[in-house]
Amino acid sequence: MDMHTVVVGTSGTTAQDVIAVARGNARVELSAAAVDALAAAREIVDALAAKPEPVYGVSTGFGALASRHISQDLRAQLQRNIVRSHAAGMGPRVEREVVRALMFLRLKTVASGHTGVRPEVAQTMADILNAGITPVVHEYGSLGCSGDLAPLSHCALTLMGEGDAEGPDGTVRPAGELLAAHGITPVELREKEGLALLNGTDGMLGMLVMALADLKNLYTSADITAALSLEALLGTDKVLAPELHAIRPHPGQGVSADNMLRVLAGSGLTGHFQQDEAPRVQDAYSVRCAPQVNGAGRDTLDHAAVVAARELASAVDNPVVLPDGRVESNGNFHGAPVAYVLDFLAIVAADLGSITERRTDRLLDKNRSHGLPPFLADDAGVDSGLMIAQYTQAALVSEMKRLAVPASADSIPSSAMQEDHVSMGWSAARKLRTAVDNLARIVAVELYAATRAIELRAAGGLTPAPASQAAIEALRAAGVQGPGPDRFLSPDLAAADAFVRAGKLVAAVEPVTGPLA
After folding, report:
1. Domains of the chain: residue spans and CATH
2. Is 219 annotated as catalytic?
3. 5-imidazolinone (Ala-Gly) cross-link located where (predicted)?
4. What is the rounded average pLDDT of the residues 177-194?
């Protein structure tokens, strides 16, 4: 287990901290300031709980049942009941990294001192994370409003020592047994605490943060594969000149063009586009417009990162404890800001997949590849080459187009019409995770095709760019084979996918190109 420690304070957290806890198993500690803020807010909640006037979440029911005042002797039961009844998720289990992000981000809000949760509850949340105990959370149960209710409830259930959880060894056991095995005492919830543990955008936010990290790698990788395809097609790198992109100053476009230009530096393949029997005046859109498409996606990532940073600095709960002692109802739990950018990312990822597939198809079509063999086959007719690799890529692209349909444009009323407009942000996040997985595979297929095509060109006497050669050598060292007779293709494609996903393509070329954005 990684012994890196993330300190949770009162002023939010960073994307890097979320990833360190979710994926790197970093330890979590509460700062002294957070413990003080938790204690101060709890004093306010305790004072309100002692008064006869009803306060939402403290001494009332929830949602459409908020009109009932709950007597002192029933309040502990009220908090247990909200957790048990809201832990109503169904379907497949959610990935461990998503659940850890969800738990950590809820702890982040709890530690802000705006929720009224006792310090010992927050400490137990940290202890569960540090023990590597992961609640069983199910795919379905969040509408992205009033928080990711069912997912967070399953986490709170573990905090109470109930339900099922996965231990650090990967075995699912009753949560009470796992807590006992690690010396963790289950929490007995008091006023407001059950509600405070359920009421946040933590699941969708955690998935947004991880998707942004994955997409940053994939966009840089896609700039590289676009450059490799341009080179394999004997295209021109003149369209990447910085002065052309300066007159349309979208930041991402300039970055992608610069990345591609650096990958192609020193290539002996580019610039042959007018030497064909039918000279090309221009390259096809999928080649020539790669910086514009990749760059627009990059700008969308930047916008989404701004939204994520704002949400990471937020305390999302209802009601919230304010520094002046008020406990006020609010609508900050609504997931619209996060849901929108999750959908935006699914749209740009689908379009990046689409343009990537078009270049692959061009590499395989003897009528458009400018001298490459049909399907990059060794003996076309006897061999099918990469024909069906493109089918697989096309199937992935088609699914990405379906996944690009916005979830946030939908809403469905709940809680007897009290919660009559919801964000569907959890659904947007779940489909984005699938889209990101698909995009990695699509980029990997282009890498596989473009490197084979460049090697075929090199066999004909043309010299690839040094960065291209570095990418090819690293890919071959990773076990992905080059040109030759037909073979079982799936393992090669899987290895290329793992190569891209792990950031190895970017790492392979950067010693030649310098750091790529």
Report:
1. 5-200 (1.10.275.10), 207-316+348-513 (1.20.200.10)
2. no
3. 145-147
4. 96
